Amino acid sequence: MIARQPRMTADEARSFDRFSVANFSQVRSQLRCSCNPYEDVFTFGRWRAQGYHVRKGEHGIRLTTMVEHETEKNENTGETMVISRPWTAYVFCRCQVEEDSNGTRR
Question: How many Å from the N-terminal Cα to the C-terminal Cα in the chain?
């Protein structure tokens, strides 16, 4: 069974607790429009939380990042180890999304 994160609010979808210069640079270099990373570029889930959907046929910008992952506790010490592993995320700019047809934002 996959553990799912709770749905985020629209305000949470527009805010970031971390900022990656590498991701900013990578997104900026691949954008073909005047959108700004961290202002107009979000993941699929963040767009959904704001009441938008990605238009059919649009391709996202692929980002590879590292995420922290807790492993099982060490039997000898009882400590939980945290390791980093690669994760691929796709982001879409404002030019690639439309507001949901029902007109309400979540």
Answer: 26
- For residue 32, tell me if it sits in a domain: yes
Number of folded domains that form the chain: 1
User: Is residue 28 one of the residues assigned to a domain?
Assistant: yes
Q: How many residues does the chain have?
A: 106
CA dihedral 41, 46, 51, 52 (to 10 degrees): 40
Q: Quickly state the pLDDT bin for 88 (edges 50, 70, 90).
A: very high
pLDDT at site 7: 81
pTM of the model: 0.74
Select from 40, 14, 45 the least CA-distant residue to 27: 40
